[in-house]
Amino acid sequence: MATSSILGPDGRPIETADLTEELGRGGVTGLRSVWHDSIARNLTPARLSAMLEEAGRGNADDYLTLAEEMEEREPHYAAVLGTRKRAVSRLPVMVESASDDAEDVRIADDVRELIARPGFRLLRKDMLDALGKGYSVHEIVWERGKKWLPSFEIRDPRWFRWDRDTGCSLRLKHESDPINGIPLAPYKWIVHRPSLKTGLPIRGGLARLVAFAWLCKSYAQKDWNAFAEIFGLPLRIGRYGPGASKGDIAILRHAVASLGSDAAAILPQSMAIEFHEAAKTSGGDLFKTLCEYLDRQISKAVLGQTMTTDAQSTGLGSNNASVHNEVRDDIRDDDAQDAEETLNRDLVVPYVILNFGPRDNYPRITFPIREPEDLVALVKNVTALVPFGLRVEESVMRDRLGFPEPDKDALLLQAPAKAVASPLPGSGNLDQALNARQVKKAPPLSTDARQAARLTEDADLVVETLTAPIQTMLDESSSFEEFRAKLLDAYDELDDARLSELLATALTAAQLAGRYELLLGV
User: Whole-angstrom Cα distance, residue 442 to residue 193?
Assistant: First the structure.
């Protein structure tokens, strides 16, 4: 088998032939069968307890099957687990370069092209299946062309087993070693193990945490349906006379039974059927209360809170669900960091090594969790602090804003050119003495020019005084609506008398200047 000069994580050369093959494909039979019998059907508390105990010892096939069936059978669990997955999968994806070095920037741009390829979005979504089961596995099938490009195939978690020595190293089930399995080939697998709980990975899935609540709710729903079938329908009583024959009784029995399904029956005139309403009972409320309680416990386990799934009527009203996030921020952030670590370790590093060779530092995929206005604050703060000596890498700002490295021939945006002030008379080398002939004196200003300059100076002071409180309101406002409200409230209190007086003076001066020029015939 062909080997490469590139070393794997274990320090040995990798087998290049393995990179392009599907090592973990399943089949109809064998250790990696795609078909599995149902576990949830007729499940009892004793059997569930034994199943979870067996999974903790490393034999987790039945538990993993149950975890999948729980999502199929229980709408509430499927809903809250899906909400937690989407809280991470809908986050934006960014790539941060290792440094401002041209080579690092180029590699980061290449990784950006990688995550824009088809398949990455589904990878990011499917790897979060580990939240329920404790781990998820994708196989990378590399395609060799001008460069190594990956495609991703999700693999059934039941096709793997944890090593018997530590319970922390995942191995592929294989006919060559049916008991222990074989080690995972380097640069071939993306194994996501969210750190939901300290300890063995197989004991950390959310399905294990809510399994008993799910089973109790299944029993409650079954009993609730039986209760509704007995007490929810009116009782049908058929009455026959003392002289009725066996044939008459059979006809009456058939008629009573038909009313339960067909709602129609034919009877002799001498027979009668009466309907008795079921006795009113509060037994149904008991099952409803139990199911709602179990739903809240599942919501707490998965989302960290219950308000967004079951709005409770409180003294503040039932709309207080709107003030809670769908998933608690700390839970979402932790899930996102786990996903970042997995993708950078199992995808970015192998991709860079195969295409660019080993490096001291690698670009990073991140899921930034920021509100849109944070970018505005970031730019504002950097713009204000850089002139005072703050040193910020260009690549960091570009990554934070989501801008790629521009191409060499690209048309770039530029700051508008600043007007160059005309040099003052006599400006130049201050150490050089100038005589009167070298200095060109500016021509004297006319009367109207001097008047205009004076009015301009007065206007600057008046406008500054008038706009100062408006600027204060603007600085203290967090939104346009708040600024508008403050401005309308303070409109009547703004002192514009001095500005009106100044404008009247300016108009008068302009009128007098015009008449003066008319008299002179200018």
Answer: 79
